[in-house]
Design brief:
Elements lengths: L2 H13 L2 H14 L5 E5 L5 H8 L4 E5 L5 H10 L6 E4 L12 E6 L11 H12 E8 L2 E9 L2 H8 L13 H7 L3 E3 L11 E7 L9 E7 L4 E15 L2 E4 L11 E12 L4 E9 L4 E8 L2 E8 L4
Parallel strand pairs: 1-2, 1-4, 2-3, 4-5
Antiparallel strand pairs: 6-8, 6-10, 7-12, 9-13, 10-11, 10-12, 13-14, 14-15
Helix pairs in contact: 2-3
């Protein structure tokens, strides 16, 4: 598959995801008023910017650092919106706008909520772009974690690299794989405890750019701990939420699986203590996990080695 096809299919997966796009369409219709000035942080193919125009926005400032902004410009022209949308091919931290906005919207939520940088970028945009009393989409994001047992995935994706291939030693790749997170579709039968609420960030109020917290789990059954699974619940507007958690309608996000370096047996009632912190605007996550005297300390990075 070519890089171009990968690029188009990635954005297609988001466009056709009605959990994502449909929920944002409802939030935009609810929050944006006729004559509003709107900022779209990380506009991608421009769909949210164009929906904001449809909802009555006077003007939209659409910010996107990747080449997909050229697609958004073509679509804006094709739909007669080129005079109502101003595009910035840059990171939002470097953009200066000619006026303040009534609404800032973004869909830069990753599989574990913050790893695409929404916490830092939306806080910065709020402070520099938003009028007093302005509105934000999403309003808040919550994070959840649960310890999981995934023997087949661990064997085929993590430990595969220590078995060798065609007589060659690929074991260095295991360390790279175990220190990344993996988007997966998981069911509750993989859970070793009840899910735990990790964090809730209200974007209109927060001064934080990173996550730093502790959570504890108590195993509800015997099993083998292979890592932690995480997801988010975002309140886009009052009464309107979108989530990639288990049991929610399917979306392109899936859940985030964070493997640990060595699986650990657990018994019912065992405590699993986890310390979590993020750095570099959510791109890196640092984990300390303590269970049955086994202590792991490792870092994960979003989508790259």
């Amino acid at each position: 598959m070519t890089k171009y096809t990968d690029f188009i299919n990635y954005h297609l997966s988001m466009m056709v995801d009605d959990v994502r796009t449909g929920s944002y369409r409802q939030a935009i219709s609810q929050v944006i008023r006729k004559g509003d000035v709107v900022v779209d942080v990380g506009c991608g193919s421009g769909i949210l910017s164009f929906l904001a125009c449809r909802a009555g926005a006077r003007h939209v400032y659409a910010i996107e650092r990747e080449a997909v902004i050229e697609v958004a410009k073509l679509v804006a022209a094709k739909n007669g919106l080129q005079d109502r949308v101003t595009f910035f091919n840059d990171v939002s931290f470097s953009v200066e706008l000619p006026e303040r906005a009534d609404v800032i919207l973004t869909e830069t939520m990753g599989t574990f909520g913050f790893e695409e940088g929404i916490l830092g970028s939306l806080t910065d945009a709020r402070d520099r772009f938003l009028k007093e009393g302005g509105r934000l989409i999403p309003h808040s994001v919550e994070l959840f974690l649960v310890p999981v047992e995934l023997p087949k995935f661990y064997e085929h994706v993590i430990d595969f690299w220590v078995t060798g291939c065609q007589g060659l030693d690929y074991s260095p790749v295991r360390e790279l794989t175990v220190n990344n997170f993996h988007p997966l579709k998981l069911h509750e039968g993989t859970f070793l405890s009840e899910p735990t609420h990790v964090e809730r960030i209200v974007f209109a109020e927060t001064k934080r750019a990173e996550v730093d917290t502790n959570v504890s789990f108590y195993a509800t059954r015997r099993g083998r701990l292979h890592g932690l699974a995480g997801w988010f619940n975002a309140e886009l507007a009052p009464g309107l939420q979108v989530s990639n958690g288990p049991g929610d309608r399917a979306s392109h996000w899936g859940l985030a699986f964070f493997p640990i370096d060595r699986p650990v047996p657990v018994e019912r009632g065992n405590r699993i203590l986890t310390e979590i912190s993020s750095t570099d605007n959510g791109e890196y996550w640092h984990w300390r996990i303590d269970v049955n005297g086994h202590r792991f300390e490792q870092s994960t990075r979003r989508g790259s080695f």
